Amino acid sequence: RGELRRRAHELASAWKSEWGTELVLTNGAGPIWFEEGGKPAEEPVYPAKALNPTGSGDAFTACLALALARGASLREAVREGSRAGALNAANLKPGSIL
User: Fold this and answer.
1) Dihedral sign of CA atoms 64, 66, 69, 71 in order
2) Alpha carbon 88 to chain centroid, angstroms
3) Which of 39, 34, 37 is nearest to 79 (CA)?
4) DSSP secondary structure code for residue 98 in this structure
5) What is the pLDDT of residues 16-38, one digit of tens each?
6) Burial class (CB in 10 A: 0-12, 13-18, 19+), 92
7) What's residue 95's pLDDT?
8) Crossing angle of the two packed helices 74-89 and 56-69, in degrees rounded to 10
9) Which string of DSSP letters, residue by residue, matches 2-68?
């Protein structure tokens, strides 16, 4: 895990430097990795009893982008994305979050 995290940090730094964008990595039930102030950061996944994870990554990404567009910090947006992904996974029918 340490080597993988080190490599993720290198990639995130390179992406930020070259394209001015952030890299956020999800890993199912594992913590979400991202950069905060140029340093590796992680956020635990929002807890949920998963019935069907189909579309949870899409829900995560959509809510992450929406939160950022509304002015949230990256950490706040990651939390919101995680919440949306968990809500999606807790439903049998993908994309039926209300």
Assistant:
1) negative
2) 14
3) 34
4) -
5) 999 999 999 998 889 999 999 88
6) exposed
7) 75
8) 150
9) HHHHHHHHHHHHHHHHHHS----EEETTEEEEEEETTEEEEEPPPP---S--TTHHHHHHHHHHHHH
CA distance 35 to 75: 9
Quote the pLDDT of residue 98: 58
Give the rounded percent of residues in the chain with a pLDDT score beyond 70: 98
Question: Are 34 and 78 within 8 A, CB to CB?
Answer: yes
Q: Phi, psi at residue 40, to the nearest 5°?
A: -60, 135
Dump pLDDT digits (tens) for 33-55: 999 988 999 999 999 998 998 99
- Who's near 63: CB < 8 A, 6+ residues apart? 77, 80, 81, 83, 84, 85
The token pair that represents 19 in the structure block: 């394209």
